[in-house]
Amino acid sequence: MSSQLSNMHDNGIKPIDIVKKNLAGRRRAEQRFRRMGFAAILASLFFLALLFFSIIGNGYSALFQTYIKVDVFIDPGKIAKNDPSNGDYQGIIKESLRKMFPDAKGRSDKRRLYQLVSSGAAFQIRQMVLTDAGLIGQQRSIWVPADDDVDMLMKGHLSRQDDTQSGRFNRQQLRWLDRLETEKRIKKKFNTIFFTSGDSREPELAGVWGAVAGSFFTLLVTLMLSFPIGVACAVYLEEFAPKNRWTDLIEVNINNLAAVPSIVFGLLGLAVFLNFFGLPRSAPLVGGLVLSLMTLPTIIIAGRAAVQAVPPSIRDAALGVGASKMQTIMHHVLPLAMPGMLTGAIIGMARALGETAPLLMIGMVAFIVDIPGGFTDPATVLPVQVYLWADSPERAFLERTSAATLVLLVFLFAMNGLAVYLRKRFERRW
Question: Which among 50, 234, 282, 378 has the fewest CB atoms less than 10 Å away?
Answer without folding.
Answer: 50
